[in-house]
UniProtKB/TrEMBL annotation:
Residues 182-487 form the DNA methylase adenine-specific domain. This is site-specific DNA-methyltransferase (adenine-specific). It is an enzyme of class 2 (transferase). Its EC number is 2.1.1.72. PROSITE patterns: N6_MTASE (PS00092). InterPro entries: D12N6_MeTrfase_N (IPR022749), DNA_Adenine_Mtase (IPR051537), DNA_methylase_A-5 (IPR003356), DNA_methylase_N6_adenine_CS (IPR002052), Restrct_endonuc_T1M (IPR004546), SAM-dependent_MTases_sf (IPR029063), T1MK-like_N_sf (IPR038333). Belongs to the N(4)/N(6)-methyltransferase family. Keywords: Methyltransferase, Restriction system, S-adenosyl-L-methionine, Transferase. It comes from candidate division WWE3 bacterium. It comes from the Bacteria. Residues 9-170 form the N6 adenine-specific DNA methyltransferase N-terminal domain. GO terms for molecular function: DNA binding; N-methyltransferase activity; site-specific DNA-methyltransferase (adenine-specific) activity. GO terms for biological process: DNA restriction-modification system; methylation. It catalyses: a 2'-deoxyadenosine in DNA + S-adenosyl-L-methionine = an N(6)-methyl-2'-deoxyadenosine in DNA + S-adenosyl-L-homocysteine + H(+).
Length: 525
């Protein structure tokens, strides 16, 4: 997408968001806008598939089929079977996005412009047509958060209808270029909106979105040296953007994700479908990753995650977790107040022997003692799976300004006698209220990792013996010396400048007296 196209798209999407921005906060209106974008996408994709594939030899188009006639019903029944099998859902011609927009705008003869009830039925229909099919899990409850009865849309049913009609009209004016197989304009639009909503939602936004530059870095870490990945897992997948980022670097066969928040779980499934991932090739499940492992048998070739920092969890309050093989081999569970290492060991459990995983964590995991210190020691000394520690700048993430780090793990390491430390905390650019990594920053980090380079005051390959001597404390300054000698002060020069100032004092006082006399003011001298 060119810069001009990107600016136009962002301008159009901003206009859409403005219709609801004054009615509710970003965390609420995102559900409507993303939901309707998804409805538009499904509708246009369905119509395109039917017209270009199922009706390619016919003299009529899908929208022209007379639904009320016997012949029309028969044709639609056959089309429905093919669509559910291929796309996973079905809509009638009068349920298409374009038809509903025309109705809302008053362009359909003898029909009311009230569309709220139609929309409720349509969004429900998309889910119902997938029931009992292979796509059921991927469409079930997708539109649960699009609440068309909310009083925040308007004080009356007509006011609510007006707001929704305006949103749909604006979305209808955006061409997502579905006919261009190489275009990912729709995916770009979705990613842009998710990022905007995350920024607007503050701390809540961080729960479902990893900044693009950070997700690019993690994706490169886990795909280095590969062209294809059999499977990728994100156990705290949020909106799914981190999973999808791997497509920029390798061909991915299957995507797996788990998400606790039901709204965000819906976003992730929408995101997969909007990016053209077929329902046969992604599995997103809802549940608490640490207490409800929804993929018990999965061994993923790549794992990426940005879990909530130092989240509270049940820990030793749940006897089942003590004996859970994801945690039991480490001797102790991660503390109740910080589940960071619970996520790490969960991911290691699901990492295949030829796999790589990268996880974003708070710096505390590098040096905190107690049970975390014991788990850290086991991972380094017994498993030898930690491959790299990367310190990131502060204020990169939505909802928190603290600096984070990335830990990279491998089951079969090529350099198994050292761990690479990178201090990238000073390389960033400022952007409004947040910092961000530039392309150059990302390239420097990744190439340093890939080539395992030692750069003065930036990176260091620490031997396992060196780490043992530090009592398995991974605090980056212990290994990367970033100390800068303070600039020497020339005392003689300072004294000389001071003497010059003292000599000028009488002249300055005299000049000040002249000014005070002119102003008829009393001199303090």
């Amino acid at each position: 997408m060119s810069d001009e196209q990107k600016r136009l798209l962002e301008k159009q999407l901003w206009a859409v968001a403005n219709t609801l921005r004054g009615k509710m906060n970003a965390d609420e209106y995102k559900n409507y806008i993303l939901g309707f974008i998804f409805y538009k996408y499904l509708s246009e994709k369905l119509e395109k598939y039917i017209n270009e594939t199922l009706l390619s030899r016919e003299s009529f188009k899908f929208a022209e089929i007379k639904e009320e006639t016997d012949e029309g019903k028969k044709i639609l029944e056959e089309i429905k079977k093919a669509c559910v099998n291929h796309l996973g859902f079905f809509l009638q011609p009068n349920e298409l996005f374009s038809h509903i927009v025309k109705k809302g705008k008053g362009e359909l003869k003898d029909q009311s412009t009230f569309i709220l009830e139609d929309l409720k039925v349509i969004l429900d229909t998309i889910e119902k047509t997938s029931m009992g099919t292979d796509s059921e899990d991927d469409f079930k409850g997708l539109f649960d958060d699009v609440d068309l009865t909310s009083s925040k849309l308007g004080s009356s049913e007509n006011k609510k209808n007006e707001a929704i009609v305006e949103v749909l009209k604006l979305l209808n004016g955006i061409d997502f270029r579905l006919e261009d197989s190489k275009s990912d304009l729709l995916g770009d639009a979705y990613e842009y909106l998710i990022g905007e909503f995350a920024a607007g939602a503050g701390k809540k936004g961080g729960e479902f979105y990893t900044p693009a530059q950070v997700s690019r870095l993690l994706a490169q870490f886990v795909t280095v040296g590969k062209k294809k990945i059999r499977s990728v897992l994100d156990p705290t997948c949020g909106s799914g953007s981190l999973l999808l980022r791997l497509r920029d670097y390798v061909e991915v066969a299957d995507y797996y994700g788990q998400e606790l928040n039901p709204t965000t779980y819906n976003l992730a499934r929408m995101n997969m479908i909007l990016h053209g991932v077929h329902f046969d090739h992604f599995t997103i499940r809802q549940g608490d990753t640490l207490t409800e492992d929804r993929f018990p048998d999965l061994q993923a070739e790549a794992i990426v995650a940005n879990p909530p920092f130092s989240a509270k969890w049940k820990s030793e309050d749940d006897p089942a977790l003590v004996h859970d093989e994801r945690f039991s081999q480490y001797g102790r569970l991660a503390p109740k107040s910080a589940a960071d290492y619970a996520f790490v060991t969960h991911m290691l459990h699901h990492l295949s022997e030829n796999g790589t995983m990268a996880i974003v964590l708070p710096h505390g995991v590098l040096f905190r003692g107690g049970s975390e210190g014991q788990i850290r020691k086991h991972i380094i000394a017994k498993q030898n799976t930690l491959d790299a520690v990367v310190g990131l700048p502060a204020n990169l993430f939505y909802g928190t300004s603290i600096p984070a780090c990335v830990l990279v793990f491998k089951k079969c390491r090529q350099d198994d006698d050292d761990i690479l430390f990178i201090d990238a905390s000073k390389d960033f650019e400022k952007n409004k209220n947040q910092n961000y990594l530039t392309d150059e920053n990302i390239k420097k980090i990744f190439e340093t990792y890939k080539d395992r380079k030692e750069i003065e005051k930036y990176s260091h390959k620490a031997t396992l013996e060196e780490i043992k001597e530090n009592d398995f404390n991974l605090n980056i300054p212990r290994y990367v010396d970033t100390f800068e000698e303070p600039e020497e002060i020339d005392i003689k020069q300072v004294a000389h400048e001071l003497q010059k100032s003292v000599k000028r004092e009488p002249d300055i006082k005299a000049k000040l007296n002249e000014i005070l006399v002119e102003l008829n003011l009393e001199s303090p001298f």
